[in-house]
Automatic annotation (TrEMBL):
GO terms for molecular function: carbohydrate binding. CDD domains: Aldose_epim_Ec_c4013. It holds the Pfam family DUF4432. This is DUF4432 family protein. InterPro entries: DUF4432 (IPR027839), GH-type_carb-bd (IPR014718). The lineage of its organism: Bacteria, Pseudomonadati, Pseudomonadota, Alphaproteobacteria, Rhodobacterales.
Length: 392
């Protein structure tokens, strides 16, 4: 059944109410037409519950805007949703990526995910390209997709909104990787499912790394908001040498601050019996939260990003294929994923709105049942990076 406005409706009943389901829910194509966003194609999804989000076709089909009943979920930075033609991937010593950094979700990869690095590339057998110079978080997030379809799909009396596309990261004498992305949400629900496949279409043995930079902003993020996660161990903190200097711990969020320097943590997460890892940011005052559920076998690592600078206020949930140690360490530790022609890796995730106090309590109970996270805001990082197995 389709649940709309507090009623469970059959397809017949839903279609009898209006000439088109779009009066309540749907997915439609748009083009932005001003400023740095001019020319970007996007898809707007509305589920009929008050959940609305947009998908940037021309930026890897990442999710940009996201709001629920008029309350923002996703983060908006000063950079805006910049058109990829304006992007300078090699600019500012590799930090040019920051000028395209905004929205609920930015995909990082497909062969590099963290800070700038230069790594050897003997696999490409091309002398002039003896190394690859990677800018921050890789290339994929600013590459336009080829949209292969979008619309409504009825399954009996249930209706699903969906979109699919392919994003190609390729070059001569280098990588040729494809991201196949499907985004789907059921009408009457608050759960966005993201199904990704990364495929090596080339004929070189190619490294692969993958990460989602999922950014939650105000009002979900405000002073007192809580980070809920099945944290078995706080592994690492970039600011460990001045751990308490900014008075911002991992668990309870502060108000925006002047002169705040970003903080990044890595946590070792537990998983439920099905291998799923739920992580949430919740605002008890509003009775509103946002939860990301991933698979431990697909994303064995998880970072937490804190940017509490005034005017840029955000917290990031970052599931990752690799430790925060970086590209060189992934190779040295034999934890890099290597894809031969036709090899692929799958990533299946769910983004959920927690619309009220009851949903927050249920999410917290689910998370706590997996692992009781440290109760203090400043647990000592262990420095124990669990080996990642099963890599080809």
């Amino acid at each position: 059944m389709v649940k709309l406005y507090g009623k469970n409706l059959s397809r017949h009943e839903a279609e009898a109410l209006s000439g088109n389901l779009s009066h309540a829910a749907g997915v439609r194509s748009m083009v932005l037409d001003d400023g740095v966003e001019r020319g970007i194609r996007l898809l707007e999804f509305r589920t009929g519950t008050g959940l609305r989000f947009t998908v940037l076709i021309d930026r890897a089909m990442d999710i940009a805007d996201c709001d629920f009943r008029g309350q923002a979920i996703g983060w908006h930075s000063p950079a805006g949703f910049r058109h990829p033609a304006l992007h300078e991937p090699e600019g500012e010593g590799g930090l040019g990526w920051m000028r395209s950094f905004s929205g609920l979700m930015i995909t990082c990869g497909l062969d590099h995910i963290l800070f700038m690095a230069e790594v050897p590339t003997p696999e490409y057998t091309y002398g002039p390209r003896a190394t690859a110079r990677h800018s921050l978080h890789g290339r994929i997030g600013t590459i336009p997709a080829r949209l292969t379809g979008h619309g409504e799909r009825w399954d009996g009396d249930r209706c699903f909104l969906w979109a699919e596309g392919v994003v190609t990261q390729g070059t001569v004498f280098g990588e040729h990787l494809e991201l196949h992305r499907r985004i789907e949400v059921e009408v009457g629900s608050n759960d966005i499912t993201l199904s990704d496949r990364v495929v090596n279409r080339g004929f070189y043995r190619t490294p692969h790394m993958f990460c989602y930079h999922i950014n939650v902003g105000h009002p979900v993020l405000e002073e007192g908001a809580r980070y809920l996660a099945p944290v078995r161990d706080v592994v690492w903190a970039a600011h460990a040498e001045s751990y308490r200097a900014q008075n911002a711990g991992y668990r309870t969020m502060p108000a925006p601050q002047a002169g705040f320097h970003e903080q990044v943590w890595q946590h070792e997460m537990g998983a439920d019996d099905a291998g799923r890892v739920p992580v949430a940011l919740v605002n008890d005052r509003l009775g509103l939260g946002f939860m990301v559920t991933t698979r431990k076998d697909q994303f064995p690592c998880q970072y937490q990003w804190q940017n509490f600078q005034q005017g840029q206020y955000a917290m990031g949930i970052e599931p990752s294929s690799n430790h925060v140690l970086g590209n060189d360490a992934a190779r040295a530790r034999d934890e890099m994923t290597w894809l031969n022609h036709g090899d692929e890796r799958r990533y299946d995730s769910t983004f959920s709105i927690l619309p009220d106090a009851a949903a927050i309590a249920a999410a917290e109970a689910r998370i706590t049942a997996i692992a009781a996270q440290p109760k203090e805001d400043f647990p000592a990082p262990s420095g124990t990076f669990t080996p990642i197995g099963g890599r080809s």
